[in-house]
């Protein structure tokens, strides 16, 4: 592992400040997708970017935005590399990122979810405050009213990374950033 | 054929086999756009197709130029399983195809991800995506199998019709040396039979291997519907070479 220079730290901060093209309330740093920045000399920079989903169409826009921001800050040559390993997980979203998602009306992913989708029974999957096994998943809370009483409408929503749910308390439908 | 540095380290045949599976199934699922029974399902099938397309792009790029491989190869050069090229049929056929393939893909990528071969990074991501695809297929299999008389009959027809294409999945793929194929097949059979049982469906009994079996997709032999699918998939690219947005 090469030590990060102060210049690379600054460039990493710049690259991480780019807003996510699909969820502009989040920065790429809060989403956890900018892995590393390596400077070769003073005007050539390589950025490691990891996709949320393999087929995420936002990766190309992210790369272009990172290039633009770094160029505007005096870097002459920018190369954005897509790296797959270690695989991105929703656990890489920062606490600040989760708070912003909630504010934006999207239920943030639950943490410690690397084991994949929560196995469910038939019918709409409901979560509630009590009555779950100690090792069961925590409830998905409505980002509007905070109720834990919500149900799954569809495992896939407006983008691959989200599921569609409805709050049983305030009846509002909402997106839930799926655990990955 | 030119030798690139990557050819020394990447098993091209395996990258094509796995990449073509993902590409072809992605295209089939995309055909549901505008035709799915409900809006949520339209979105779900499109999202699954997008995941598969992303995997296909990574895998085909390991074997060469992704666009050339996808749009300029002839039918006999594709190495996908015959299962994934089968037409969508009714919704039950699509779900049966999803069940058979997503359980296979989930189990296979889980094994590839835990190794240190060239496919481990992609498999580490794909296994998480395939887990959602598998869950989707299993839930629909249960709902349709254990649903109305009509949905039960259709789901049974679908799992029966596609059964003969499932033996091919466990033919060893050149370049995936660390995989225990008989073990993979046992795990697949256990998982699929468990779901079919819970869905009150009868596990099909027809041959999956042996003298009479379907499945030479990995050798480049495909079923009749595949040619028509390719024609549609490739015609825009071939009609307008080099076109850009």
Automatic annotation (TrEMBL), chain A:
Residue ranges annotated for the MIP18 family-like domain, each copy included: 16-79
Segments forming domain PaaD zinc beta ribbon = 135-178
Region Disordered: which residues? Answer: 107-138
- InterPro entries membership: Fe-S_Maturation_MIP18, FSCA_dom_sf, MIP18-like, PaaD-like, Zn_ribbon_PaaD
**What name is this protein filed under?**
Phenylacetate-CoA oxygenase subunit PaaJ
Q: Per UniProt, what is the name of the gene that codes for the protein in this document?
A: paaJ_3
Automatic annotation (TrEMBL), chain B:
- UniProt cross-references to InterPro entries, sorted A to Z: Aromatic_CoA_ox/epox, Ferritin-like, Ferritin-like_SF, PaaA_PaaC, PaaC
**Native species of this protein?**
Streptomyces prasinosporus
Q: Give the Gene3D superfamilies listed for this entry.
A: 1.20.1260.10
UniProt lineage: Bacteria, Bacillati, Actinomycetota, Actinomycetes, Kitasatosporales
- Would you say which domain of life the source belongs to? Bacteria
Q: Which PANTHER family match?
A: 1,2-PHENYLACETYL-COA EPOXIDASE, SUBUNIT C, PHENYLACETIC ACID DEGRADATION PROTEIN PAA
Task: Supply the name of the protein.
Answer: Phenylacetate-CoA oxygenase subunit PaaC
